[in-house]
Every structure is written in C-alpha cells, then in structure tokens.
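Exercise: predict the fold of this chain.
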Amino acid sequence: MRRKLAINRLRERADLGPELVAQFVERYRSPIIEGQNATFLFLGHADEVFVRHRVVGLPDPLPMKRIGETDLWAATCDLPAGSRVEYQLETRRGDHYERFNDPLNERVAHSPMGSSSVCAGEGYHVPSWAVPDPETRPGDLIEHRMRSKALRREQQMLIYTPARFNPVLRYPLLIVHDGPEYVQFSAMKTVLDNLIHRLDIAPMIVAFVPPHDRLREYANNAPHARFLARELLPMLEEAYPLVESPLGRCLMGASFGGVASVTTGVRYPGVFGSMLIQSASLAFTDIGQDHGGGPAFDPVVKFVNRYRAKPTRFTERLYMSCGIYEPLITPNRSMVSVFREVGITVKYEENRDGHNWDNWRDRLQSGLSWLYPGPQKYVYE
C-alpha cells in the first residue's frame, strides 16, 4: 500500500498545532520530495500564498492551501524524476504582495535577474564536473579589448587558454555569446578546466564575448555577425594557434545568444563548422503574425520564418538542447528536422529543466564532448 504524503499525514493529526507544525517544518524543510511529488511549504501569517515559477504545464501562480488553523501553507505538484525547477514564493497580506525566495530552502540559483530557489526532484544532482576539483589544473582567463569597426566601439571579452597550453599545438576555438554570464552563472571556466582534465573534451581556446545591447545585437544583426566573422575570428587566429578547419570553429549561445549564433552562421555559411545552442529563442509563426514574444522578437520571427521557408546548410555540426519545462521547447523541437533536412548533423537533447543558467551548465559536457571529444583532440583539420 502506497504511503500517504507527509503533508497529508500532518493534516490528519488530532493534535495539530503550532508546536507540531514547528517540528514538522524543522524535520522536512521545503520542498518535500516524495517519489514523483514535490510539496512546497510556507510558515507565516498571510491571506494568500503562491508558488511562482516558469514551468510550462503547471498553473502559475500555484496556490498554496492553509493547513487547518495553523500558519503553515502547502502545495503539492507532480515532479518527474530528474526534474529541476526554479521558483519563488509570493504572499498577499491585504493589498500588499511580496515575492521572495523560499526561506525553508537553502538551494539557490543565480542569474543576471537575481536569484531563485531550486526544487530538485529524485535523481537530479549537480554534475561533479561543474564544481571545483582540487586535482584539476586550472586554465587561464584574461581580459582582452579590441576596437571593432563593425560595432563602432571597443569590445571587451575574456579569453580562456587551457592548462598546459602549448603554442606548438593547434586548438579548437569556441566563441561564447553572453560569455561573462556563462562564466559567472554557469561556472563555465570550472567546467572547461574539469572536462579537459578528465579528457572528456579537447583543450580549446574560448572567447567569452559580452553584448552591449543584447536584444538588438543578437536578433539577426548584421554588424554583430560581421564583427564575429570578419574581425574577432581573424584576430584570434593571429593571436593563437588555432585549428584552421571550419570544424574547429564553434559559435555558442543560449536563448537570444542561440539566435545570434544561427543568424551569424546563415550570414557567413561555412565559416563556423560547429555550433552549440541552448534553449535558442527560434520563435516563428505559421499562421498570422502574433508570436507572443513582444517587439524584441519581431526580427527573430521574421528571420526564422524566412529560414524555414528556404533553409540553408550554414554549419556542419549542430548541438541543440532545451528544457521540457520552458515555452521554447516547441520551436526548438520543430527546428531540429528543418536543420537536418539541409544536411546539418544535429544532436538534440531535452531535459526536465527550464530556461536558466544551471540548465545550460548541466548540458555543457554533453555538447562539448560531442563536438570536441578529448581522446580525438586535434583531428579537426
């Protein structure tokens, strides 16, 4: 016989009161993971309490119910094994609403927009290669500036060179959109150090490039593409011993950064023979013009609609990943067949996560090791 959830056993207690609730909260904290169920808790006075999230398939806000006459609130939802969900709580007291991280949950994820609490389902764990390893020899990360005629400004970036860098060898090149964010929020330098140390990926040169006006520059912007293909790439080829084949050059990005990678490839086909895009904002419309993304998506939708009508082979290998719980899952699934039909070799993976930096971090080993596997390094010529 299946055991009742802990919160339901609490509801049935005849001696339900503040002392019992305090003991319950101290024992279980929040959220309570029981098989494929997650129960969120809040302890405090409020008129209403909600779980706020961006999980497609769950109501948002997810209302919590008060347990008896106590100040404990709870909400239970399905959470398949391996799931990872970011969320916050929201309370209403009269006309005042307040939104905050779960005070009963120590797990927190960070992003440029702030932080969120993390609910991890059974089977999910932070990959070992995503945390610092004292046995790993670190690579170097240096600041670099260059003047861009295309962008009409000075462009900053971070450039990574692997441990034991040898100028006699030739290295694959990875150019990362939203580069500093990948370093800060997806621990990408740590990931690179560990994966290279473990021989999961080839040693590589990585340029972490930040945008100036992200939504404009990443939405099929000709100056941005020209900067990457005609200015940044030649500068890096002159400064570092890089693999000369297009297969050894990879553009990478998440969300709008994924759009910037694809649109650059389409503008300069064959220059970047490899690409890695995560949760790419490849929105499109089949009927009408209402894509629901707001004005920032207008040039993206125009580009994707045009590309779907007349697709071209702009790269040789493309790794794609997307979270099942994010709205972009449908357009990403749809674009896989479009890319494959023109002869692009595509590896596509889905996971039970959302549109966030930890999700993108957790896919780095899979994507990078497929594009540049360690045991076969330096074979891209």
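Check your answer against the key: The domain at 128-376 is CATH 3.40.50.1820 (Rossmann fold).
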